[in-house]
Design brief:
The protein is of the alpha/beta class. Helix content is about 50%, strand content about 10%. The chain folds into two domains: about 150 residues, 3-Layer(aba) Sandwich (Rossmann fold); about 140 residues, Arc Repressor Mutant, subunit A. Helix 6 links the parallel strand 3 and strand 4. Helix 4 runs parallel beside helix 5 and helix 9 packs across helix 10.
Length: about 300
């Protein structure tokens, strides 16, 4: 799926890379589910493979300056002992003294405050922010906004583009009529369309709920991102799995598997959204998908 989406977003990708190569802090925005994360991760890979060092941070999981600093340092291979932002910043400055760092803050609107921007910009890092709406950037101070003069808007995917991606990535046996209805209801949201397809499969081809659903009623923060969707799909198929086995299956299926620490954060996020439940503790923990009606299942992605 990533290759198809990246091909469809070739112009936006080239523009973002051009800004960053010239050390221009950049803000990217666009509706949920249109491939922002996939595109940004491809940019991160390009930077790491060609002209610099880039770190991707999912702010829906790491919402404070302290959490973001820790995630960056872990990526750079630092062993973290201190909990102080001052100490973490000092360590980060030492680790990046000889090389400029590119930091990507995805789901930027989930940050509890923007203190981390002052830290990253003060260290002279090149920063790329990614959010669902340009309104998210109004949280920044005027001084912070003045450092992000370039923005890239990602347009919604057309029905044809959504269809192209879904046909390529899914082997689900869904009739052309059902497929068309799902694409129309998705309104360009690829994540939502993919989850609807999976819900139809789980409900043995029942599409009644899809005909009733009003996409405008679907809350964006209830739609899992691609990483969480992979985990959720595994659980939908297996119903109940030990934590370790679920993580193993996730690593096998994911193109860019996260660390076990990040995996636990994804599981906590899915639990908060009411999509799964956690049973037991630590090494004995199981995860189980929550059985809900077709309509509610679709609304939650």
């Amino acid at each position: 799926m990533s290759e198809i989406l990246i091909d469809q977003r070739d112009q936006e990708r080239a523009l973002i890379l051009d800004y960053l190569k010239n050390s221009i802090n950049t803000a990217v925005y666009g509706s949920p589910g249109i491939g922002k994360t996939t595109l940004i991760k491809s940019v991160v890979d390009e930077i790491n493979n060609s002209f610099g060092q880039a770190v991707y941070v999912d702010c829906s999981l790491y919402q404070t300056a302290n959490a973001v600093l820790r995630e960056i340092l872990l990526f750079l291979g630092s062993v973290i002992a201190s909990k102080s932002n001052y100490d973490l910043t000092k360590r980060l400055r030492e680790r990046t003294r000889k090389a400029r760092l590119f930091v990507f803050l995805d789901h930027f609107e989930n940050l509890k405050n923007n203190d981390i921007l002052n830290v990253l910009l003060g260290l002279d890092f090149c920063v790329c922010l990614v959010a669902d709406s340009p309104e998210s950037y109004r949280m920044m101070s005027m001084t912070q906004r003045s450092r992000f003069v370039n923005t890239v808007k990602m347009e919604k995917l057309t029905d044809e583009e959504v269809t192209e991606v879904l046909r390529e990535v899914t082997n689900l046996k869904v009739s052309d009529e059902k497929f068309r209805k799902i694409v129309e209801k998705s309104d360009g949201n690829l994540t939502f369309a993919l989850n609807m397809l999976r819900s139809v499969e789980v409900n043995h081809g029942n599409i009644t709920a899809i005909e009733q659903i009003d996409f405008c009623d679907v809350l964006p923060n209830k739609i899992p991102n691609m990483e969480s969707s992979e985990i959720l799909h595994i659980l939908e198929q297996r119903k109940r799995l030990p934590s370790g086995e679920l993580y193993r299956l996730y690593r096998e299926k994911s193109q860019y598997p996260k660390s076990e620490r990040s995996f636990r954060n994804y599981m906590q996020d899915l639990c908060r959204k009411g999509l799964i439940k956690s049973i037991g503790d630590k090494k004995g923990r199981f995860y189980e998908v929550i059985e809900i009606s077709s309509k509610e299942s679709l609304k939650h992605g």
